[in-house]
Design a protein that fits this description.
The protein is α/β, with parallel strands linked by helices. Helix content is about 30%, strand content about 30%. The strands form three sheets. Strands 3, 5, 6, 7, 8, 9, 10, 17 and 18 form a nine-stranded mixed beta sheet that branches. α10 links the parallel β17 and β18.
Length: about 350
């Protein structure tokens, strides 16, 4: 049975699998794709939290009041009305949590682009799809291609500030944070991770951080400056505590995600440098212009392969079907996912 996972836009805890609408004849220029596998992480929760503000709900239309949280993974063309997009073509890109979906794929300069009208004003990065022959590293690609790309772009962005000595990362157990920690320490920076008590001890064993600090101790935090605070959590109380504790040592404050989605906007803005949102597509556009797409992809995949080889601790948990997906969804939503685990979903 074909299905879609739909969530309440105002209450992410309310999620369910619903039978997909019956298949219709393809409109001119449309293709149908069967979703093969995708990863689900805290990054996808951020898509739901930021859905209204950043247009994430617009990618895959849903009934009024409901949404389809996007994920990254692989899909294969099962029906096509586009000569350049043949049946059997396997692609990687932005997908819905569904068994199937339709798109208006057209051949682009560096792959394929969804040209649907409702996606025309959305960031090109999310509308791009690449041909993806099967590879033994496909599960790692599904998990790390979006997350480690953000880590890598963040490291590239922060690397432009030669004065920085220290990074302080909130929600240090998130995959994007662990990737950034690994990259930044390779450049010689000291990296301090803030984490929940339940994750702190295990996270310290992974050897990715110079120091792990439980959130409750953030008010007493001390580091060598200049330091950048990188907020993957979206918990303003923690941001206030860190900014206050570090004082003049914190010179940069970057917002990346909202893994602590239920703790937003509780407190006044933090003192010190104003938090600035990091939007990965902006850094991609900058480097695409400076390096070209081929060089950007080459540099990224070299870094990602090195990270995979250096991360034997990373376990990939396999899930099949809607019920297994919903169980993994709630584990991630409620913060029960372990920092050394990645969830790979196969719809069928």
């Amino acid at each position: 049975m074909a299905w879609d996972i739909l969530v309440d836009r105002k209450d992410l805890r309310r999620a369910e699998a619903r039978p997909a609408p019956e298949k219709q004849a393809l409109a001119p220029g449309e293709v149908e794709l069967a979703v093969e596998r995708f990863a689900f992480t805290a990054n996808n929760i951020t898509y739901g939290v930021m859905g209204e503000a950043f247009g994430y709900w617009k990618f895959f239309p849903a009934p009024e009041g409901l949404g389809r949280i996007p994920v990254w993974g692989f899909a294969r063309v099962t029906r096509s009305d586009v000569a350049e997009v043949p049946v059997g073509l396997r692609i990687f890109g932005y997908l819905p949590m569904s068994t199937h979906f339709t798109a208006r794929l057209a051949k682009g300069r560096n792959g394929f682009v969804d040209t649907a009208a409702h996606r025309a004003e959305l960031p090109p990065t999310y509308n791009a799809y690449n041909e993806a022959p099967e590879d033994p590293l496909d599960d790692h690609r599904a998990l790390l291609r979006p997350l480690f790309m953000t880590s890598w772009l963040l490291d590239d962005f922060l690397g432009e500030d030669a004065a920085l000595k220290t990074l302080v990362l909130a929600s240090a157990s998130s995959k994007t944070a662990t990737g950034l920690a690994w990259l930044a320490r390779r450049r010689g920076l000291t990296v301090v991770g803030l984490s929940s008590p339940g994750n702190a001890a295990h996270l310290a064993e992974l050897g990715l951080y110079d120091r792990i600090v439980p959130y409750a101790q953030a008010t007493a935090l001390s580091v060598d400056g200049p330091a950048a605070y990188v907020d993957f959590a979206g918990d303003r109380a923690t941001s206030v505590a860190v900014h206050t504790a570090l004082g003049a040592a914190v010179t940069r404050s970057i917002i990346v995600g909202a893994t602590h989605w239920d703790a937003r906007d509780r407190d006044a803005p933090p003192p010190g440098p104003e938090p600035v949102l990091f939007f990965a597509p902006d850094q991609i556009r900058k480097r695409m212009q400076e390096w070209g797409p081929g060089e950007l992809e080459s540099r990224f995949f070299t870094a990602m392969k090195a990270f995979v080889e250096a991360s034997p601790w990373l376990k990939l948990n396999q899930h099949v079907g809607a019920e297994a997906l919903l169980a993994a969804y709630h584990d991630v939503l409620e913060g029960r996912a372990r920092p050394d685990e990645g969830h790979i979903i196969r719809p069928v």
